[in-house]
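Hello,

Following up on my earlier ticket. Below are the two sequence lines again, exactly as submitted.
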Amino acid sequence: MNDKNKNSSEKEGRDVGGISLASDLVKSKEEIHDEELKTVFECRNVNIYYSDFKAIEDLDMDIYEKKITTLIGPSGCGKSTFLRTLNRMNDFIDDFRIEGNVLLHGDNIFSKKVDPVEIRLRVGMVFQSPNPFPKSIFENIALGPRINGYTGDLDELVEEALQKSYLWDEVKDKLTASAYSLSGGQQQRLCIARAIAMQPEVLLMDEPTASLDPISTSKIEDLLVELKKDYSVVIVTHNLQQAARIGDFTALFYQGKLIEFSRTFKVFTNPSQKLTEDYITGRFG
Amino acid sequence: MTRKTRYQIYGILFQSVCLIANFSALFFLALVMHDVLVDGWEGLSFDFLTGYPSRKPENAGILPAIVGTIYMMLLTAFIAIPTGVGAAIFLEEYSQKALFINFVKLNIQNLAGVPSIVYGILGLTLFVRGFDLEIAGFSLGMGRSLLAGSLTMALVILPIITISTQEALRAVPESFRLAGFGIGMTRWQVIRYQVLPVAMPGILTGVILSLSRAIGESAPLLMIGALAFVAFLPANPMDSFTVLPIQIFNWASRPQKGFHDAAASAIIVLMLLLLIMNAISIIMRAYYNSKLRDLKN
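Thanks for your patience. The regenerated structure is below:
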């Protein structure tokens, strides 16, 4: 029985969930030798508690610059908790407590001297369901920079952010219209544009396509792959195919523990843990 | 009789009971209006509106009461709105979840239920008499002044403003706040640019409804001794004053029929003022709602 499973997973190897990984495999093999990885975040011995519940246990993990890191795992495994830790959004949760170090370019973001607002300016966040401000499309993007004292040309900034999020052509004639007149997928890209306009270093995304249709989803995926030229992206997803399609690195969380963290092609083709194999082949989760 | 028809009858019965309840409320309102209009309509003249109190009912006017009411409303609003809205913002947006904060919230709810005459006693001790304390020969009390009355009235409506503002703030979806924090807004920026614009219709409704309660309150002002016979217009906040409910109460307690009719006329004026305020509240709410709705679809 075990042998049979092993065989079948080996056979599936390059074709997990119907997605061909062959190109990734080739590309990544080259990268392993050619490129030098720079870390953005270093997490060391991180433990996170919600009152008595231990949400994250003994986490050691790096996030690399200008790569897409996908976080996968069953519901309640701690991946969203970890994501929200990276820009201190957990501060709003009562009873949240953290031990260990989360270093952003070497500085502990949970140090007493650090202002969480500074962290969130450097590490932007996009949420599961699109949540534009109840304002115009233009204002959604311009508001943040303006109230933070942006001195450049706001029109230019808005256009650039919308260009980068591939939304410009769809909305350039109705910038004063309400953000809620857009479709769900457009709204989500607007939210990404809003985050980009703040010129962060890292973009965190908490299941950004969970509430979108397949076409909008693929647009956002293309966008993310494009964005990693300029930004480091960390994305939580329940969609394994998505994780495989867009990820450079993939981390599997299970019951608050980091089970496996490696290059995406390796996680999906040759996982080192039995648990990973079971999860990506859909045997639990 | 089948089961189904029996339940249909229950439905009709319940509907009828609700209808009767509705009509009885309307009936008594109509009765009051009729009574007041019959007695007071004739006395409602330009001279009545612009006249000063008099010993003779046919010469009596309510200008000081109208002006006093308007002044007191403005002062009360000026004191109570920033305080009440500010308290609510602190409780909902800034305070951490703590036992003490829950205790404060619970007590604000209780304060809203305290009879207004109790606030009158508080106002009398605190604002009118200033605990009978003197500093360098000056009394800390403000006497029976417009300011003392407004402060007392502000106490009456503070809990109402705070509670309705809290509810308006709680109705703002959490996702708006998170969206702001997610792009690095400070708490003040989130409140200023995300929360308050969305909560505005709710806050305004609460504020105006509480002011229209204040306009009709007489018990606390009786307690602090607002005068019924004021033959001048209050020129500054330290002047003595009267308001419409006090004037009505005073006239209604006189033996002469003429004063009773004057009281009825004053009631019409008071009700009109109330109606105007409620209308403003509805218009403002509709305006802000439509502004938000434009943006929501």
